[in-house]
Amino acid sequence: MASWAVRGACALAGGVSFAALSLSPALAQNAAANNTAADPAVLEEIIVTGLRASLEQAADIKRDAPQVMDVITASDVGKLPDVNVAEALQRVTGVQITRVFGEGQSVSVRGLQQVRVEVDGRTLLGWSARLSPPENDQLGRSSGLDAVPSSLFGKLAVYKSPLAAQAEGGLGGTVNLTTPKPLSFKKPTFSFQAQGVYSQVTDKVEPAFTGFGTTKFADDRIGVMLAAEYQKRTSTTQAFERNNFLNRTYTGTNAGVNQTPVLMQYENFVVDRSRTGVNGAIQFEATPELTLTADMLYSKLVTGRHQDFFSFRLPTTNNPVTNRVTENNMVVAGTANGTVTTAGQIRNEPTESFLYGLNGKYEDDGLKVEADGYYSKGTIDQTIQIITLQATAAVPGTFDFRDVTVPSLALGGTFNPTNYASYNPATNGVRSNRLLGVLDEWTGKLDVSYETDGGITFSGGARYTDLGARSNAYRSQVTPTRAELEPYLKLIDAKNFLPDIPGNFPRSFLSTAPTFDYVFTRAQAAQPNPNSSDRSTLLPNNQRDYTFSEKTLAGYLMVAGQGEIGDIPFRANAGVRVARTRLSVDTFLNIGTTSTLVTDKNEYTNILPSANIAFNVTDDFLIRLGASQTMQRASIADLAPSTFFNATNLSVTGGNADLKPPVSTQGDISFEYYHGKSSLISGAIFYKDVDDFIASFVTTGTDTNLDPQGRELTFSRPENLASAKIKGFEVGIQQFFDFLPEPFDGLGLIANYTYSDSEDNAGFPLVAVSKNSYNLIGLYEKGPFSARLAYNYRDEAVFEFSEGRPSFIGARSQLDAQVGYDITEQVSVSFNAQNLLPKKSATSEYSNFDETALNSYAISERRFSAGVRAKF
């Protein structure tokens, strides 16, 4: 099948090229005009006259596009109850999202999470806050979408089949976020929106503000634009975390190897987010043919979290569980003598993203030249302060994973989790961590195209990128006296610990209330940094450090045109893109107390053909065919071989500089029927054959260099684990029921469904691929009143492999609602409700197809907002 796909891609590319080159001048039209659907400059005008207008504009863009794509317009984003870009994109056919702390963070397209995210065709670098890594994001390749306010963009476009002219790097597709440009507006425009946001469990009302303004002067040849947004939200996430089912050996009666739980950790997160975004642009029409643009985008996400947890770690020796009950070779109930740990932790991770760009575009008599250069930067300064308490001795605990939301846990013996005397001062700890990270990228590109008198457009270009990253970690710790910790103790109230998670487990226990000043100063005094000129005064933790450099040179050639075959008009493009990548990464090899700097290098060249053809079977019915090869470079964190040992969780993570970029050979057939200005029925069949797919591989073992106590550690590293095939289809409809009598003629529907069946060469589904996903959105717009109810669903997906077995993230769904009313043409009010069914949207992770073998569970709260918007 893979060889057929490769031959098909090459044959279609060649056929489209031949068709484009042999067009009759009388039939050929302006191909360059059609090709602009992929050009961000064409996606700039913002329509804000209602749901119908936004859907009509999106349908027009999709119809004229030179490739398979979907788009959300600015007014559509503004009408949805979505606080960031990821949550807006979940409404698109074939797009699935991953949520962290109750908000969307990253997207998958047609089952693949390796998606390139652009702003106006440029990379926006950044870091993401994580609860746990249920699905791998492409850290360092683009900003986490939770950091980007959705209101800063004019349109959100999802490209599912590539053009040779587009930057490589999206195995599943490319998401392009388009900022508005001032010369695209016909008149000065200003708007402002204010909201109050209420989080139900946290019981707080917090603000959100958005402002936008643009105007032109100097005979409309100079335009300026400024947009800004600020959001504040405190939320609560209740969770069971950190578990895995790993092989343990049992002797005696019922001897054998059973997969046994590792850790039962019950924890409560209170997460404080503030999100700030600013976007500005200046445009100058130097001549009718030449336009110069300077623009910038700044985004800052400050995430602070307070965490309290109670954990019970099972022993790693043989026969860890007595009276064990097994199902499918999983130990789901029994008794063990475990280690009890409680802790209070504060964690702050302000992240910033900067993007500065210059663009010049010249168009005259069929010739188009565009030069673009930009600088992108992302930073993080993460600090963690934690005070842990540990029981004086092993504690007997009886657990049961069956028929409950999270496993029950009953403690035996004399241990009292609320009594300070039950905790051992020799194992209590004060620890301060700091992580400083910088990502930056310089990119320049030049694109040239020429349309012949016959209507054929030839284009080519080159792109050079210099990407760098640096991560420096620091960690100091101390064992304080019992008396020293007394002022920082706190009793967790059973009534308020995980109130929305039913079950029997320790709900009242001693935790701690760390302060930054105490923990940082105390840990630093115990283990100071001997290098006064280093980036932090804490002790270097260089097992996590890396310095990364990657340089890429890419070029492409493409031909496009249109004509007729028989009586059927068509538009076509074909081309090839060649990308050469060289990277090096410096890390430390730690053996005992000796650290040695090691440099790893890698280089590779990818040749990526692509071709697209669209047939206008009738004025309203289109058939598209596309074939291409796409690739995705591994994330920077995955490429850094540094080894990070977490002494609390006994986990070891690291990267692999020898990772090859996965390459997908893919084909698409899509059908689009436009029956009315804003109505559309669409469907597509897709196939992807992926080589060198990357996934985390989890094993266990000991390493006395990392852990002198010789305890069993869980190791996780990325590998090119498999080849894989993905096949599926998607269908969608958007329709207003104008034929109904008043007032029901304002009703509308958006519905889409995606089926994505994936399998690697071991027979397992791919990481992050949900087989079934769908959206159901009910609309109503009549006069000044509008409303929508949006339901989103995706089923289970693999998130990692443990000892060769897949671990899954379970099915989840979300229900959101929005109501709006236009008081006047300039002023409107809105009410939004998000995550109305929290238990349905809860994230659960489990081992090896068995939902009873729970690894984690997290539930987020409902959120409501009300606001007013004015536009002039």
Explain the overall architecture.
There is one protein chain. The protein is mostly beta strands and 872 residues long. It has a single domain (2-871), classed as TonB-dependent receptor, beta-barrel domain (Maltoporin, Chain A), CATH 2.40.170.20. It is built from nine helices and 42 strands. The strands form five sheets. The protein has a 31-stranded mixed sheet that branches. A hairpin with a 2-residue loop joins strand 15 (322-327) and strand 16 (330-364). The protein is globular. It starts with a helix and ends with a strand. Mean pLDDT is 87; it is low at 1-48, 76-81 and 130-138.
Summarize this entry quickly:
With 872 residues, the chain is mainly beta.
Top-tier CATH class:
Mainly Beta
- Please state the CA-atom Rg, rounded to the nearest Å: 28 Å
* Global morphology: globular
Here the CATH topology equals Maltoporin, Chain A
Number of helices: 9
The share of residues in extended strands comes to: over 45%
Arithmetic mean pLDDT: 87
Superfamily at the CATH H level?
TonB-dependent receptor, beta-barrel domain
Quaternary state of this entry equals single chain
Cα end-to-end separation: 57 Å
Low-confidence stretches: 1-48, 76-81, 130-138
Q: Find the count of extended strands (DSSP E, 2+ residues).
A: 42
Largest sheet: 31 strands, mixed
- Structural domain tally: 1
CATH architecture: Beta Barrel
Give the helix proportion (percent range): under 10%
Describe the protein's topology.
Layout: H1 2-21, H2 31-35, H3 51-64, E1 69-73, H4 74-79, H5 85-89, E2 95-100, E3 103-109, E4 115-119, E5 122-123, E6 155-159, E7 173-178, E8 189-199, E9 204-217, E10 222-241, E11 245-250, E12 256-261, E13 263-285, E14 290-313, E15 322-327, E16 330-364, E17 367-390, E18 395-400, E19 408-411, E20 429-451, E21 457-478, H6 482-485, E22 489-492, E23 509-512, H7 516-526, E24 546-565, E25 568-591, E26 594-616, E27 621-631, H8 636-639, E28 643-646, E29 651-654, E30 663-674, E31 680-701, E32 713-736, E33 747-760, E34 772-782, E35 785-794, E36 797-802, E37 805-809, E38 812-822, E39 827-834, H9 838-841, E40 843-847, E41 854-860, E42 863-871
Parallel strand pairs: 4-7, 29-32, 31-36
Antiparallel strand pairs: 1-6, 2-3, 4-5, 6-7, 8-9, 8-42, 9-10, 10-13, 10-41, 11-12, 13-14, 14-16, 15-16, 16-17, 16-18, 17-20, 18-19, 20-21, 21-24, 22-23, 24-25, 25-26, 26-27, 27-30, 28-29, 30-31, 31-32, 32-33, 33-34, 34-35, 35-38, 36-37, 37-40, 38-39, 39-42, 40-41
Family: Belongs to the TonB-dependent receptor family.
Pfam families: Plug (PF07715), TonB_dep_Rec_b-barrel (PF00593)
Main location: membrane
